[in-house]
Amino acid sequence: MIELLQNSNFLIGSPDAIEALKTKHQARLLTISDCHGQWRGLVRIIKQFGHTCDALIMLGDCWRDLEELLELAQEDQAFNQLIPPVLAFVRGNGDPSSFPVSYDIGRTNPNARTLPKGTVLVPEQLLLEVNGHKILMVHGHMQGVDYGYNKLGLDAKLQGAGIALHGHTHIPVFEQRGDFTFINPGSTSRPRGGSPASFAILTVEDSFVDAAFLRINDPFGDESSFSIFEPF
Question: Which of 67, 139, 148, 178 has the highest Cβ tally under 10 A?
Fold first, then answer.
């Protein structure tokens, strides 16, 4: 269950849930990117996996899907119960810097005091702390991830993060380079490079992070069918 409240750190959830995530052992992160408006698929993923995870991470080009998710969570308490207690998201190259919902989600957020009620703020990047690890979240277009990880790796190093999550390329990736781990869950609706429509569930242990990548077998249909696969 999630409390529909955006905090000053841009995370949605109760302050207690956000604080608990920092030290939670073996945290599970449902990680999604590049939905591009296929929000019904996002809802199916959450219905099957959300209740098993400690946070939902959305890595950009998902704003319309996020809007629909938040409205449904407000209207449907049964669905709200399935959403992980912390929701973190960043702005993609196709996303606005803010969008409205029908309720005052930023009522205690000082960043939203001069904005209309119901404004959700979408940050360019986030530094999320999970189980003692600092995780840098970006979409990736500003870091040039199409051409490599030099800029993203430098950004992660400057912020003290050993894990960097991104989207943008629509291609799932799990790559370790020295002290850094780079992860892209792929796209839930527009895969590229011969990869399937996909998302990932990350497990953040005390000393490492692992990822299970899941293929969406029917991304545009009504069937909720998923299978584990290894990215190229």
Answer: 139
What single-letter DSSP state applies at residue 12?
B
State how far the Cα of 4 lies from the Cα of 13, in Å rounded to an integer.
6
How far is residue 206's CA from residue 163's CA, in Å, rounded to a whole number? 13
Of 59, 68, 65, give the one whose Cα is nearest residue 93.
59
E strands, 90-188, are: 98-100, 119-121, 125-130, 133-138, 163-165, 173-177, 180-184
| Residue in 62, 124, 119 with CA at minimum distance from that of residue 90 | 124
Q: Which two tokens stand for residue 18?
A: 């956000």
Tokens read off for 211:
């990822």
* Dist. CA 146–CA 205, nearest whole Å: 29
* DSSP element (H, E) containing 69: helix 63-75
- Burial code (b: 16+ CB inside 10 Å, e: under 16) for 151-160 equals ebbebbeeee
Say whether 83 sits in a helix, a strand or coil.
coil
Give the separation between CA 134 and CA 179, rounded to whole angstroms.
13
pLDDT for res 53: 98
Backbone angles phi and psi of 140, in degrees to 5? 120, -20
The percent of residues in the chain predicted with pLDDT above 90, rounded, is 91
The sheet carrying 198-204 orders its strands as 87-89, 55-58, 27-32, 198-204, 209-216, 226-229
